[in-house]
Amino acid sequence: MSTLTGSTAGTGDPAIATASLQQDAAVAPGFLADTWNVMVRELKPMLREPASVLFAMVQPLVFLALFAPLLPDEGLGGSALQWFVPGIIAMTALMGASMTGSNLSLEINTGSHERLLVSPLRRSSLLVGRALKEVVPMLAQAVLIVAVVTPFSFDLHPGGVLLGLAILALFSVGIGALSFALALVSAGQDWLFWTVQQTLIFPLLLLAGVLLPIDDSAPGWLRFLADLNPLGYIIEAERALFAGTVPADTVAYGALAAAGVAVLGLVVGLRTMRRSS
Amino acid sequence: MAPSVLDMTTPPHPHQAGPVIRTQALTKTFTRHKQTVEAVRGLDLEVADGELVAFLGPNGAGKSTTLRMLTTLVAPTSGTARVAGYDVVTEQRAVRRSIGYVGQGNAAGHQQRGRDEVVSQARAHGLGRAAADARADELLAAFDLADHAGRPVSTLSGGQRRRLDVAIGLVHRPRLMFLDEPSTGLDPQNRVNLQEQVQRLNRELGTTIVLTTHYLEEADAIADRVIVIDHGVVIADDSAQRLKAGLGDLVSLGFATPDDAAAAAARAARIDGSTVDLVGAHGTDVAVRVAHGRDLAADLVTELASSGTPVRRIEVASATLDDVFLNLTGRSLRETQGGTTGAADHTEGAAA
User: Fold this and answer.
1) C-alpha pair distances (Å), B111 with each of A35, A36, A104, B107
2) CATH code, domain carrying B306
3) Do residue B141 and residue B226 come from a single domain?
4) Is residue B51 part of a domain?
5) Which of A97, A238, B160, B180 could disulfide-link A86, Cβ–Cβ 3.0 to 4.6 Å?
6) Residue B111 maps to which CATH number?
7) Domain encompassing residue B270
8) Which residues partner with B285 through β-bridges?
9) B positions 108-147 inside 8 Å of A (CB)
């Protein structure tokens, strides 16, 4: 076991000893630099070990392979795949972003979150950086899915897909921030985080018509609940955009729903953060 | 890199008038299960530039809560605190830029690589990309972590992780460093290494150090100044040496008969400032607590022998910080650490 002081005991290590006044050169980073720092920090473990993400990225493809063939082509306004892919990508975004907080929980438990709180990083950057981090794997996931399904009965409309992904990115940031807030509230009680996350995620997905369309044959109460679900509007917009159409009202509603979730997430996240310290 | 010699011509820190830490009536109360817990009660404290201060006290005494207020992690309920010249409530960012912090947990995320974390912290403190890289390499080499910094932090040993914590805390060369229970959970060898490192930081660079500990030996061994905290208030504040000297040495004398012991006790009671107790199962032992007992013991033994009450056994023990604590509170610090170890501090932390 090597010692802390090493063999240079008494002479002073260069790193610690050169405590001159160079720090005057350091300029206080702004909000964007702080946010970038937090986001890059969050992405680092993934970049260092890409294999760890690959497995997770294959999951939606399994879903696609095993579920899409069960869907009938008729009644969905095109091929089943064309209808199903946007929903699956939205599902991936929701699943990924809603787990933002689990990483935070881990860091609250082991102490690194506390270190970040004592660092000069802005509170808002800690939140936004973590939430933004979910956008990167979401986009990679979407590209992978689209690449895999395009040779089959899926027509690629790049413009629509890009606009659709932009809306989803906004949604991811909001969900990520909400997940962050949930992790703060349930600090020290991991079960609380997972219970709430799991309890909310499936109703949200089902009521958004990800797996089966919610059409006129659905009972009134269910349609009422679906109307309250922002994800439903987002998926409507995604399906239109992925199909190469841009119906102004549908897309506007979807974008508004995503923006609403983003604003809600950031407001709730920041308030929770201020209150928890 | 520059040669590893400390340049004594430039002062390592800007000279600043007044104390580095000053608190006035600093108070923190928590409400838990509808009960109000007064974690810190009206703390008035000054720490001067260059001091090495240990907050000593049992778990739940309020020392960690105090540290968390000084490091902006917890807002005081009332009172004020200025750290490095900045208010901990209204100038939080300035405080954070000025201090180094090593918490009870690990500074580096367990799924991260150690080097990435040092670089990220350096960037957070405003270092440019190249400067951050260079600083990370310097620190990793200084703490003997260069070979381990590319591995996930979760695979490092406890001692390696602790060194990484300290390295991260030093990224911006803070003039003031806080360490919360730094050696808890370390094996004895790593504990000593850490203590040496902390002392060198203080002695060679003049970094002001404030640490909390419930290890008596640690406070005794490294701190210039020990602040004993119990139930949220400071009950003693001095150098370990003076705290112990104030209590005096314990001279234990054994006699053949209870009569001899009683006579000796009467004689010992005439020494200025002494406290004398008849102890032992048969009343044949006398315990004398007196300042400079170590120097007085020989004369006392000679005198007792010449007056016909010869001493059969003698033992002289200097006071320990535990004796100081016992004297102040009626409880032993060692005993208070039994039972609920950790639980109290944990809730204290969770409340933050």
Assistant:
1) 20, 19, 11, 12
2) 3.30.70.920
3) yes
4) yes
5) A238
6) 3.40.50.300
7) 249-317
8) B254, B279
9) 108-113, 116-117, 120-121, 123-127, 131, 135, 138-139, 141-144
